[in-house]
Amino acid sequence: MGINMKMIKGFLFVVTGLFILITLVSLLMPSRIMTAKTVMINSDDSSIMAAIQDLQQWKNWHPVFMDEQAGVKIPGPSAGANAYAVWETNGKENKLQITNSTPGQVTLSLQRPGENEVINLFSLATIKDSPGIQVEWRTTTTLKWYPWEKFSGIFYDKMTGPGYEAALQSLKKYAEGRPAP
Predict the structure, then answer these.
(1) Which segments within 7-165 are labelled E, that is strand?
(2) CA distance 162 to 44
(3) What is the pLDDT of residue 34?
(4) Does the pLDDT value for residue 11 go beyond 80?
(5) CB–CB of 31/145 below 8 Å?
């Protein structure tokens, strides 16, 4: 019986030590995760900006907005600062809101109850000796201090990157296929 108690104490000591070590290592990891994807679009910057700045136009290129079952609603103005769209996923409301819009750049905030806010930044740049416009979609997520969140941050790009790439390819197809405004 004494051996069993020693084994249990030893096991609990090792598990506690491992938990403390993992927590300390996670505190050294960055709490902000950035994902950036780019695409070259052969269109004029005003057409591209119009497709990004107006949430009503997202239904023409963004997979979530194109999906009628997602039930995306835009209750007020669809363009400009404070314009927003809402939809539900797994019983939780998602809110995508334009926080800033300047020539060549749009910033949006994606919020979902109980989850970290994701800041989205679209920026357009002309590339020397290139006929197209480079569109960059950069997202920044601030993680909580929890070790499992910090370690999951290592895989954020692998989990979210393909969705951003698909949306950018769809934007490219849409922007290149429509006439300039």
Answers:
(1) 32-41, 84-89, 92-102, 105-111, 118-126, 133-142
(2) 25
(3) 79
(4) yes
(5) yes
